[in-house]
Amino acid sequence: MNGSGEEYSEEAPFAVNSLLAAAHELKAPLALVRQLAFALETAEDPADRQRLIDRIALTSERALRLTTDLTKSARLDDGLFALEPLNPEQVCRDIVAELSPLFAAHERTLRYKHRRSPLLLVGNRDLLRRIVTNFSDNALHYAAAGSDVILQVQSIKSRGVVRIGVRDAGPALPADVWRSLHARAKRGPQAIQSRPQSSGLGLLLAHQFADAMQGTIGVTRHRDGATFYVELRASEQLSLFS
Amino acid sequence: MTYILVVEDDDWQADLQERALRAVGYDVQRVSHATAAIVAIDERVPDVLIVDMLLAGTTALALLHELQSHPDTADVPVIACTNLAESLELERLRKYGIRRIVDKSTMRPEDLVAAVRSVL
């Protein structure tokens, strides 16, 4: 691959940019696993060795989640993802259970903010789980050490949607980076050379998954972090609970 | 003792770099973003700065540009430790104080130590 950045501009074919972005996103965890293996080679303390082994496993799982997302993205047109009424709270609790070891290993906490009245939305459990897991992985990267990442579900009755948000507390992003994040959610991954931080591939996949459920994704900026969210149509069965 | 500041937003990556550098006797502090780096540098100017090029929040180049604008930090040698090494050209980055580029995806722990020694 030519590293000069001249061949793959933002106008490059979507598939090429997606491939580059996927390669870039996988490179960081693979490089980390490799270096963890070197550290394991020289570590003598059993507790230290176990910590390194755990980090290798958790980093590998993170990379594997991206490969799963890419596979699902490629199969969205196959009609395999039927929509049904879902309880997003259960999806959130499942994600908290799955990712808690990863967050704990990074000295952060992932938790679900309980709400009294349950909500139902229309979506696909698998795709919704991929979106919220993706946002949670992203939040882990940005969240300050020792902070909580919070999954929350809310009803926006005026628009007939249910919003599932992932709130992190991290360093404030400059306004230009913020505008760029907004823009990325709706277009293909950019040429690697033009990115200030990441490829935006995760956001693009989340956008595709939300679109397949007739939903949308978005982001809200806070003074001390951000909330990435997905909005899906509220289920009419919601009335059964009210 | 040589003091090295590591600016790296991946905790585990930073931990590995700290291990490698402490193992040969360097004094190491690590921070996870550019704002924290500026605070740390205000307290103590490092002998070497190791910086990830893809930081969350303020970018590495903005941080380095800021350091270049102050006489007491303009000469701090910088090592870029990055997964984007193949996309970077050292000559174009020298104006930011970058003296070496280390590729995270191919480096071994001793490569980082060698890079530090080469800029001291």
Defining traits:
A: 242 residues, alpha+beta, Heat Shock Protein 90, 5-stranded mixed β-sheet, 6 helices, B: 120 residues, Rossmann fold, 5 helices
Structural class of chain A: alpha+beta
Strand order of the largest sheet of chain A: 2-4-5-7-6
CATH superfamily grouping of the domain at 1-70 in chain B: Response regulator
CATH class value of the domain at 1-70 in chain B:
Alpha Beta
| Strand-pairing-aware structural class of chain B | alpha/beta
- Examine the coordinates and then state which fold CATH places here, giving the name of the CATH topology of the domain at 1-70 in chain B: Rossmann fold
Instruction: Tell me the major beta sheet of chain B.
Output: 5 strands, parallel
Low-confidence stretches of chain A: 1-11, 188-196
Kindly provide the radius of gyration of chain A, computed on alpha-carbon positions and rounded to a whole number of angstroms.
19 Å
Order of helices and strands of chain A: HHEHEEHEEHHEE
Order of helices and strands of chain B: EHEHEHEHEH
Report, as a whole number of angstroms, the end-to-end distance of chain A.
57 Å
- Overall mean pLDDT of chain A stands at 81
Global geometry of chain A: globular
The number of helices of chain B is: 5
Largest interface: A-B, 36 and 26 residues
At the third CATH level, what is the topology name of chain A? Heat Shock Protein 90
Helix tally of chain A? Answer: 6
Please tell me the CATH architecture of the domain at 1-70 in chain B by its name: 3-Layer(aba) Sandwich
In the predicted model, the low-confidence regions of chain B spanning at least 5 consecutive residues are none
> What is the count of β-strands of chain A?
7
